[in-house]
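user: can you give me the structure for this one chain? C-alpha cells are fine.
assistant: on it. calling the predictor now.
[tool input]
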Amino acid sequence: MGRRGGDPASDRTEDATTTAHGTALRLTVVVGENDAWHHRPLFTEIVHRAHAAGLAGASVFRGVEGFGASSMIHTTRLLSLSEEPPVAIVIVDDEEPVRAFLPQLDALIDGGLVVLDEVEAIRTTSKQENHA
C-alpha cells in the first residue's frame, strides 16, 4: 500500500512490475455458505478440486446479502429469516483448463449459479521475482 500522503500508484511501481498476461477465462460459482458436499463446505470442495486440477488460482468471497432463484433474501444480519449468505468462488485461468474443470462442477452443484466471462488478466510481480 502507499505511504500516507503519497501517491499509492507511484509507491507500488517502486516495488512491483506489471505485465499483461492477455485474455483469460473467469469462472464464478455462487452457492450458499451452508451448502455441503459429503459433510464438507461446498466452496471448500470446489477450491480443493480446482487446486488438484492444476488451475492457476481460486478465491472464495463471502457475500453480505443476496438472493437468487428462490427469491428469498439471504443475509448475515441478526434476526433475519434466512442466515445463509451467498459465497462466490472465483477462478481465473486460461480458457482450456477452466472449461476442462466444468464437468467437476456438474457433479457438485445443484442449484447454484456458474458464470463464465472472458477477462484481461494482468499479473503484478515483485522485483525479486523478476531477478530470480
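assistant: here you go. The first strand starts at residue 16 and ends at 32. Strands lie at 16-32, 36-37, 40-41, 58-62, 65-66, 74-75, 86-93, 113-126.
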